[in-house]
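In these records, each integer encodes one residue's backbone shape. Here is one protein:

___
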Amino acid sequence: MHIEVCKSKIHKVTVTEANLQYVGSITIDEDLMDAANLIENEKVQVVNINNGERLETYVIKGDRGSGTICLNGPAARKVAVGDVVIIISYASMDFEEAKSFKPSIIFPDIETNRLI
């Protein structure tokens, strides 16, 4: 049996941009991606703490060290600049393997979106 478990989590970052005129996705500072074990094009869930919205999209690389968190395309309508979001990815794995799996969870500085 396979189950889905939390693989990666960026806990509480601030939205820096919302770009409606883009194909879609979430742009994330590459430093945050590396620290959270996320890769470009990986599917993620974005949970908006300010308004309760939840959405799924995919990751694109933002400039390293920039602190960028930008919702693009239709997802831009689900956030406002300054909203605080949690970004989560999941992995499917064998039930027994999942019992010992440890996700990559990071807690960046909420003011700058940079690693502490």
The chain has two helices and eight strands.
